[in-house]
Amino acid sequence: MDKEERKTINQGQEDEMEIYGYNLCRWKLAVVSLGVVCTGGFLLLLLYWMPEWRVKATCIRAAIRDCEVVLLRTTDEFRMWFCAKIRFLSLETHPFLSPKSMTNKVANGHAVHLSENLAEETRHEMSKYSQTQPQQEYRKMRGLDEGVSCTSIYEKHSAGLTKGMHAYRKLLYGVNEITVKVPSVFKLLIKEVLNPFYIFQLFSVILWSTDEYYYYALAIVIMSIVSIVSSLYSIRKQYIMLHDMVAAHSTVRVSVCRVNEEIEEIFSTDLVPGDVMVIPLNGTVMPCDAVLINGTCIVNESMLTGESVPVTKTNLPNPSVDIKGMGDEFYSPEIHKRHTLFCGTTVIQTRFYTGELVKAVVVRTGFSTSKGQLVRSILYPKPTDFKLYRDAYLFLLCLVAVAGIGFIYTIINSILNKVEIGVIIIESLDIITITVPPALPAAMTAGIVYAQRRLKKIGIFCISPQRINICGQLNLVCFDKTGTLTEDGLDLWGIQRVENTRFLLPEENVCNEILVKSQFVACMATCHSLTKIEGVLSGDPLDLKMFEAIGWILEEATEEETALHNRIMPTVVRPAKQLLPESTPAGNQEMELFELPAIYEIGIVRQFPFSSALQRMSVVARVLGDKKMDAYMKGAPEVIASLCKPETVPVDFEKVLEDYTKQGFRVIALAHRKLESKLTWHKVQNISRDVIENNMDFMGLIVMQNKLKQETPAVLEDLHKANIRTVMVTGDNMLTAVSVARDCGMILPQDKVIIAEALPPKDGKVAKINWHYADTLTQCSNSSAIDSEAIPIKLVHDSLEDLQVTRYHFAMNGKSFSVILEHFQDLAPKLMLHGTVFARMAPDQKTQLIEALQNVDYFVGMCGDGANDCGALKRAHGGISLSELEASVASPFTSKTPSISCVPNLIREGRAALMTSFCVFKFMALYSIIQYFSVTLLYSILSNLGDFQFLFIDLAIILVVVFTMSLNPAWKELVAQRPPSGLISGALLFSVLSQIIICIGFQSLGFFWVKQQPWYEVWHPQSDACNTTGSLYWNSSHLYNETDLDTHNIQNYENTTVFFISSFQYLIVAIAFSKGKPFRQPCYKNYFFVVSVIILYVFILLIMLHPVASIDQVLQIVCVPYQWRITMLMIVLVNALVSIMVEESVDRWGKCCLSWALGCRKKIPKAKYMYLAQELLVDPEWPPKPQTTTEAKALVKENGSCQIITIT
């Protein structure tokens, strides 16, 4: 396709697509219409299934600027096609956009503003695109979240919009709502019924009806209706659930400021980017994304992050009024999230100046908001590419090929036997419907449904059942640390203060009289984001523990008090009465305690909230009666120390810090300084935090303890024994994370830890990685550390072929990880192979890590507590959220119990469901081939199976067996081997082919042997092979009436023989394929299956050895001599013995034989990580040596990779 006519939209993003322009062509449309009529509508169906063909068949190529229809193709590995109609919205010249700009909507039938009803669902349907005239490029419509500086938000957008501008932008951006339209039942029904499989079933039913197979046709119709109804119910239920979740607060009344300072009340659906929204005093649910420009808000963001802790949001720093300018920084919702109120989050309280309202500028609306993006990702998840499902299509294609052979054979055989043309058409098409089993989808779904039920019983809820099978393949699991591997809360272990630039001894009790007036305790009392909500102190758990430890009291000003003053009434903290020093005799004690609290209290004047990018928070406070204000700061020790006067930081700071972090403690540093007296209250409100946060005095360390959860070591040990690699992804400190990894057994005591410290290019120097070796053994005497001997010696990384000799792990932080991904593409896969600890990771970096691991062919599980893990949980093959909050909607699995013990349970159930899928596939393949061969043999004598024989086989045998053989529960423990990932594997194919040969052999034996019997003759109604007059009388009386009806020549000795032998064969292969250990419980523990098979065996044996006239009449079975019945029984018994012995042999020795047969040529591992592991074994430069540096030559690029040199 021409480069000029192909453009890319959303370039470099996850939803990147190629776009091609087309215009409708009348003569092509006429030709297609004629084709539709000639093919009886089949061409229309084909074009419905294939959007690319539909557009190309009815349209001609056009330049994108002039097109009416666009064809879109994703650029990911799935290369999916979508088509959409274009609706142009011409915009008149306006100051907001360039005169030649226009906007268009790329959407399909579900889109809010379009009347066209196109069939495709696209993830891009809720996005508006603008077309820039000179380049004819489509770009997603943006609000104020990109390319707008912080200065311009204050200067250009803080006054509000005029009514004219508001109306114009509403036309441009549309309605501010996140609508999840629940499709009508009729619409869903049409979409479901037009599924290729149901069309095939409809074709089968029509064919059987013309051939008078009414009973079987009716049975298939009933099965299809049940399947369609259940599918419609579950799809509609999910839509309604999501609709209710989104619509709960979709429309509220909001107040907005207009340019002339008047306040207008409008519906939230009318909000547009640039509106200035007034946040009400009593809080609200945010209907859009907005940035605070005035006041402070306390917000519950559990809807987005899963974290129920209230977050304090402050106004965006205004560079123009800062004493020390920050430069013209661009506003970004990610970077400035501490100043951004996100859609769907709940504002609990607001703080404000007198006479000034709490205001926020709307930056994004509708589906562009953070909540809109979450909803869109749930509605249109990225398809999961799993080998099993790809192989299933190949399997169906093989069956279609087999059916094609049967089709040709039937036509030739019928022509040679001079059969009527009508019969030839029906019988040749009938063989296709026999080969592709109509019960296959129901059979495949059964195992997954049963696994879903078992998971629900153990408290694991699943919103994406197809993922259960994929979980059976997991060979690597990423764990979040805090709240997942360790306890949720932190306990205060102690403090270590600094005096005269030297560390004092650690102190356990902070709540004492000596320290009550110290700057250290004052910092603990003021430097936090705690607030009182309905009288209860709430906020970050760490801040809560710290504040509780000192035993102080927090008091907040009421709205009435704030209104009386001309400045913000500060939040006040003061010590409890009993804490203040007793400096007077006992007689005056009461008086002293009464007076002192009034004297000693601290007001928090300004708060700079915690920023994960800066890794610190600070406050400006003033002790009652003091002239000068104090600045207090707390945060990551390395960051705090760098902002303090070097002479106040102890010389042994790094050593003390390392000792604590190695033991797994969470360490926070405190600092303080007196501010200049010229700083007034109002100046402080507008000052930049950079002015405050420097030149501080280092005060010491707070040491917090994060205990391992009791079950963590045992669960990780189980995973290691099962050769499932474990990785830690955390936002915590690197050394703390390494320590916890050692404690829980993720890193063994004797293993080496290599820290990769990557530095981005700077001052003309290229990016580089410094390699440091961490201490191999920790001095930790933590009781939760497990005995290393309990862990198998086999290394966790070597999840396959004992490839590793050296045991080493890589650890890195989020910054290093980003640099490596960007500048060291060649190194990234190698680091993925041994990376165990990823610390200080931001939410998007967690997602990138999951993708990087998937790129080297790992099947990745992710277990997190829902906070900041949403993206990673969605991206992983199996994401398990330990949060019961709404954020877990984005995760395929949610565990009711907040414990990682759900991970092995999920993998066990996944493996069981996967093995069930293989068993069902193999059984359905054999069922198709056995029935296909039975019919082919009978066609050779111009016979067929009877209507009720088909019915008995398909309903009584196949459906019962399929639905009961899927009931085997999972094996009680995880084993080291994994089930195969696809159907196309040597052992599995050998198993199926050997069973096909056995079944065909024994069926052919019966078919040809019956003809050699002395009593055999071509059957006719007067035949008396049984030599019983009574029987003859019954046969004659019954069959004389049916002779004219038996036009298909159903009743004959060959039919009866083939029917009995094949009926037993279905049950034999069901038993042979019902695998138990090591992934499922043995089949004899599946009582429903055992009982069903026994009943069927007894019934078939009974009608074979002891004929019942009425049953023979219904099944159209003829009477055969007793010795032939015994002979058939012997054939069946030998068949059973051979089938089961061959299947057992394949299980036991199949893999060994195959590997021996393939041993002559060196097999290259399919998985990239295995291939890499083999390469690294012989690489003398790997792992990197201690204290070396690896540099990237960014300028020399070959095939998109960087050349790497190592400098020692």
From TrEMBL:
<feature type="transmembrane region" description="Helical">
    <location>
        <begin position="1086"/>
        <end position="1110"/>
    </location>
</feature>
<feature type="transmembrane region" description="Helical">
    <location>
        <begin position="983"/>
        <end position="1010"/>
    </location>
</feature>
<dbReference type="InterPro" id="IPR001757">
    <property type="entry name" value="P_typ_ATPase"/>
</dbReference>
<feature type="transmembrane region" description="Helical">
    <location>
        <begin position="432"/>
        <end position="451"/>
    </location>
</feature>
<dbReference type="InterPro" id="IPR044492">
    <property type="entry name" value="P_typ_ATPase_HD_dom"/>
</dbReference>
<feature type="transmembrane region" description="Helical">
    <location>
        <begin position="214"/>
        <end position="235"/>
    </location>
</feature>
<keyword id="KW-0597">Phosphoprotein</keyword>
<keyword id="KW-0460">Magnesium</keyword>
<keyword id="KW-0547">Nucleotide-binding</keyword>
<keyword id="KW-0967">Endosome</keyword>
<feature type="transmembrane region" description="Helical">
    <location>
        <begin position="948"/>
        <end position="971"/>
    </location>
</feature>
<dbReference type="Pfam" id="PF13246">
    <property type="entry name" value="Cation_ATPase"/>
</dbReference>
<dbReference type="InterPro" id="IPR018303">
    <property type="entry name" value="ATPase_P-typ_P_site"/>
</dbReference>
<dbReference type="GO" id="GO:0031901">
    <property type="term" value="C:early endosome membrane"/>
</dbReference>
<feature type="domain" description="Cation-transporting P-type ATPase N-terminal">
    <location>
        <begin position="158"/>
        <end position="208"/>
    </location>
</feature>
<dbReference type="GO" id="GO:0005524">
    <property type="term" value="F:ATP binding"/>
</dbReference>
<feature type="transmembrane region" description="Helical">
    <location>
        <begin position="1056"/>
        <end position="1074"/>
    </location>
</feature>
<keyword id="KW-1133">Transmembrane helix</keyword>
<keyword id="KW-0067">ATP-binding</keyword>
<dbReference type="GO" id="GO:0031902">
    <property type="term" value="C:late endosome membrane"/>
</dbReference>
<dbReference type="InterPro" id="IPR023299">
    <property type="entry name" value="ATPase_P-typ_cyto_dom_N"/>
</dbReference>
<dbReference type="GO" id="GO:0006874">
    <property type="term" value="P:intracellular calcium ion homeostasis"/>
</dbReference>
<dbReference type="Pfam" id="PF00122">
    <property type="entry name" value="E1-E2_ATPase"/>
</dbReference>
<dbReference type="InterPro" id="IPR047819">
    <property type="entry name" value="P5A-ATPase_N"/>
</dbReference>
<dbReference type="InterPro" id="IPR004014">
    <property type="entry name" value="ATPase_P-typ_cation-transptr_N"/>
</dbReference>
<dbReference type="GO" id="GO:0015594">
    <property type="term" value="F:ABC-type putrescine transporter activity"/>
</dbReference>
<feature type="domain" description="P5B-type ATPase N-terminal">
    <location>
        <begin position="13"/>
        <end position="103"/>
    </location>
</feature>
<keyword id="KW-0479">Metal-binding</keyword>
<dbReference type="GO" id="GO:0046872">
    <property type="term" value="F:metal ion binding"/>
</dbReference>
<feature type="transmembrane region" description="Helical">
    <location>
        <begin position="1122"/>
        <end position="1142"/>
    </location>
</feature>
<dbReference type="GO" id="GO:0015662">
    <property type="term" value="F:P-type ion transporter activity"/>
</dbReference>
<protein>
    <recommendedName>
        <fullName>Polyamine-transporting ATPase 13A3</fullName>
        <ecNumber>7.6.2.16</ecNumber>
    </recommendedName>
</protein>
<comment type="similarity">
    <text>Belongs to the cation transport ATPase (P-type) (TC 3.A.3) family. Type V subfamily.</text>
</comment>
<dbReference type="InterPro" id="IPR059000">
    <property type="entry name" value="ATPase_P-type_domA"/>
</dbReference>
<dbReference type="InterPro" id="IPR047821">
    <property type="entry name" value="P5B-type_ATPase"/>
</dbReference>
<feature type="transmembrane region" description="Helical">
    <location>
        <begin position="918"/>
        <end position="942"/>
    </location>
</feature>
<keyword id="KW-1278">Translocase</keyword>
<dbReference type="GO" id="GO:0055038">
    <property type="term" value="C:recycling endosome membrane"/>
</dbReference>
<dbReference type="GO" id="GO:0019829">
    <property type="term" value="F:ATPase-coupled monoatomic cation transmembrane transporter activity"/>
</dbReference>
<dbReference type="InterPro" id="IPR023298">
    <property type="entry name" value="ATPase_P-typ_TM_dom_sf"/>
</dbReference>
<dbReference type="InterPro" id="IPR023214">
    <property type="entry name" value="HAD_sf"/>
</dbReference>
<dbReference type="InterPro" id="IPR008250">
    <property type="entry name" value="ATPase_P-typ_transduc_dom_A_sf"/>
</dbReference>
